[in-house]
Amino acid sequence: MATDCPILVWMLSLNREYSLEEYSECHKVVAECVPHANIPFDPPNADSFRQVMTHLLPLLMMRHRRIPRAKWRDCVTQNGKHWIEQTPDDMPPEKFLHSMIGYHLAFETSLCGMAMTQGIQRKVVNIGLGIKQVAVEPRGVSVKAYTESMSHKLTATELSLLEPSLGDEVVLRRLCIILSLKQAYIKAIGQPTGFDWARLEFNIPAKTALGDNHPLQGWEFRIFRAKLGVARRDVLVEEHYQCVCAFFRGTKESTFVWYETVKDLESWVQFINIDQMVKVISKLTA
């Protein structure tokens, strides 16, 4: 099973402030090579920078595979799921069929990510990435108040797993795991922004996943964390993120796979930062 649609994730840490020159250079490449992203030029807007950097990840991945930009095209399904199709050239038909690369992009605060897999088109598009910063919003509110503000996205069972008596740290981490699981699944099936998150239920201790009270079968949920050191002006801040990659494998059961250490992640998750991206930016259009 591991050789069928192997999963790779690229994580880009926005670990420092960016310059106008860096924004302009990166935006120019996205405008030229990823026209469907259609990101307005807005250098002071940090969200715009996040979008630009996230949309560079597929270009970086294809560059890493030594496939020139002219040799592949970005395709999209009716419900907005993206995959990359390479030009067949001298590829045998069977190899071409299994050369499709499905991917999903996500970002939050200082972390941009891309989850991708390769295989036949109808399989590879069923991939999603969820990223949730382990922090309350807005800053300064209590964990209890933040949990209550998220309760419309949760089921009664999920709320029962977030009892305040467990302590703020446990409750916040559990909440972020549940929300990132839901986000990854919703994106993997290509649902729009208005999807009702409470239709889904993830009971972590019981290792069950439900959609409209029916078991979600055939899904693989890879759950991992990311810890970033981010320079905010002259101060280095540590940020924690809960991440989930969801992929439909079509097996009888759904599985939750936990990756707790850096060593666990080395084989399939690659971390890079702004400097590393900017260093190769001029090569991404080739």
From TrEMBL:
GO terms for cellular component: cytosol. It comes from the Eukaryota. GO terms for molecular function: holo-[acyl-carrier-protein] synthase activity; magnesium ion binding. Keywords: Transferase. It comes from Roridomyces roridus. PANTHER family: L-AMINOADIPATE-SEMIALDEHYDE DEHYDROGENASE-PHOSPHOPANTETHEINYL TRANSFERASE, PHOSPHOPANTETHEINE TRANSFERASE. InterPro entries: 4-PPantetheinyl_Trfase_dom_sf (IPR037143), P-Pant_transferase_sf (IPR050559). Its EC number is 2.7.8.7. One of its GO terms (biological process) is lysine biosynthetic process via aminoadipic acid. This is holo-[acyl-carrier-protein] synthase. Gene3D superfamilies: 4'-phosphopantetheinyl transferase domain.
